[in-house]
Amino acid sequence: MSTHSSQRSATPSLLALVTTIVNFPSPEHATSTEYDELRQHLATHCTLSHFALLGYTRSGLKWIYEFGLNDSLKEQLKADPERMLDLLGHLKEEAGWCQQSVSNGPVIRLLAKTTPSEQPTLNLLLECLANRMSEAQTDAQIGQDLSPLAQRQPDWQQKMESLNRVMRLANSLPSQAFYAQLDAASQFVLGACDFILLQLEEYHGRTLYPEHTELGEAVLQSLCHTTHTMETERHGRFWISHPLRLQHHYFAHLLLSLPHAPGPDERLLIDFLRGQLTMVMELQRIREQLAELRSLESIDLRLHQLRQANLRLQKQLKRHQELERKLQFDALHDPLTMLPNRAFLMNRLDQAMKHYHRHRSPGFTLIFIDVDHFKEINDTLGHKVGDLLLKEIAVRLSSCVRQNDLVARLGGDEFVIYLDASTDNSTISPVLSRILERHAAPFRLLGNELQVQLSMGVATVTEHTSDVSQLLHQADLAMYQAKRSGRNRIVIYSEACQDRDWLSPELELAKALEERRILPYFQPVIRLSDGQLAGLEVMARWLTQEGILKDAFDFIPLAEQCGLILELDRLILRHTCQQLQNWLAQLGGNSIKVSLNLSGKHLASQELVDKLLTIITESGVPIGNLVFEFNERELSRLDTDTLTILHELRAHGLQICLDDFGTGFSSLNALFHYPVDYIKVDDSFTHRMLQSPKDLALIRAMRDISQDLGFRLIVEGIETKLEYQKLLELGCEQGQGRFIAPPMPGIDIPPLLGRNITVQG
Q1: What CATH code is assigned to 337-502?
Q2: Which residues contact 586 (CB under 8 A, 6 or more apart)?
Q3: Cβ-based burial of 9 (10 A; exposed 0-12, middle 13-18, buried ≥19)
Q4: Topology (CATH) of 149-280
Q5: In a 3-state reduction of DSSP, which class is residue 551?
Q6: Please, are residues 435 and 453 in contact by the beta-carbon 8 Å criterion?
Q7: Which candidate, 7, 23, 303, places its Cα nearest to that of 176?
Q8: Topology of the domain comprising 516-752
Q9: What are phi and psi of 314, to 5 degrees?
Q10: pTM of the prediction?
């Protein structure tokens, strides 16, 4: 049986028990406190209702120590001491009684009682205790001075204490670490050159410590005798090997090499080291036997634990599958309306187009839908009402189509309907009629009644349609023709929809980037307690050729889809750095934090990150004034190199913000996984918290977590006075939203710098 383990012990009190036994004084000098300590250590391993030591004193046979004994046993000893041992022999084992005889001294019998199921454990412990007490009653007591030099030379006592200190670590260190401590201690107290533990087996030896030695195992074996101590001089050193044995159990050989032959006191120290090390190994043997006993007694418990572990694994597997399905769903669906997104739609259209080109039937039709005057609704009533409106429109559109059709949200207020197997008026008109009919009824949202109108463009696949993009472009052209014709109408695509000056949204966005018409607007972030300006978040705006200012949600999904998002982010960063440079000149010694929401695609390679850093360096803006925001969902889809790049960005002085926190499926894990300085609570929690106790509790938990972990918490989407007051009541540190201040151009920011923003809270 192996006696060594690299794991920490699960029963630290066992070492304390053995230490108590080894250092126990002679019975006539032991105090009741010392006996109590011995009993308490035994009781940590099994139930102990009775415990007593019977032995001879100057006044005859008596209970040297007793705990829990009934009066009859006490009276019997007084009345007839000679028959006491016979009486003890009649105590029934099935009642839980355990006894062990002790030789060579005043203590002659150990008596204890436990539960029947714990008798094997108690018998094993009493056997160990009886053997050690027999040795203690004949040999020198470890608690006494082992050498006359200990009284005359205090350093010997220090050396003994050094060894004792290491021995006390036996139960708290892995084996190799414990042996290394003993090795160092033997160098200090003995001047030992080598400290080796070798386990002799039938045909070869196995070195337990150290892992590598200059001497081969064959040489080490030649220095050892199976049963006796060996001393020899070899290679200019004096070698001593001791077999470590106790109660016929062999553990290993202790080999020490010294520069010279040891003197009497060195031998005493070596003997002490041997004895203590033997006890440590005996302790391990007992521990393993106890573990075996307990395992036999707890097979049902183990089976139950295995069943529970299996259930936990099944739950984890189910949760993993659910998370995987959620990840796949999130990648292909719009988070607000839960409709298929642009990626889902394009995949479906690609399949339909391939099938059409292969079989020339069935054909299909696209309806491109835009909500008229949606920006005005957002600006007037707020994004909360705007989001609710989009969700309601999604529900109504979905109720207008057939089972094989598809409703998708492209972004902003744009929707596309795919009509399967529909190429003529008989199948297209009923859908258009239902859309008009169901949107004729007003929407009632948060006390507001809204009459919504739609502009729709219709395009049907033909043999001249080359690909999906062309068909989608045609439906888009028809929708824009409906807009130009006065809105609230349906236009079927035809050649008349073509305008040589008109560009597709993709080309128009690319042209806007080229002409630097993607501009940064800035929304203030304040300290909620006093309105102090804490920072600014950059929000992209698209200034169209017609002079219309489009919000980010109208074109960011398009930029992602057509591969322009990285160029767009870099343009916004350049604009921001130029603006920040002007503000810093006005602020003098003050500073301001400006955060930019970037696509996680920038983290895909070192080259892309370097482009961002170059823009900042060339602008001359202190990098510490910038915060990069990354969406939590997006980060969760990136590989492990992302973590390295994030650390590198922070090493350059940038701070990192985890945006839309709480919307992903591993939010809490992300806080520990990614190096972030700020977390932004997604505005969906803010909008729901007054009606949903769960969302309110989540915001409260995020507040506590951010405080405990040292993050700055920013709450987004504060749209009403009640939301502001509730967050102030919760003690949230920072916030932003239209109730505090809307996004504004850079020219409007200087009056706010270094000042408090008045909030009518």
Answers
A1: 3.30.70.270
A2: 750, 753
A3: middle
A4: Beta-Lactamase (3.30.450)
A5: coil
A6: no
A7: 7
A8: TIM Barrel (3.20.20)
A9: -65, -40
A10: 0.47
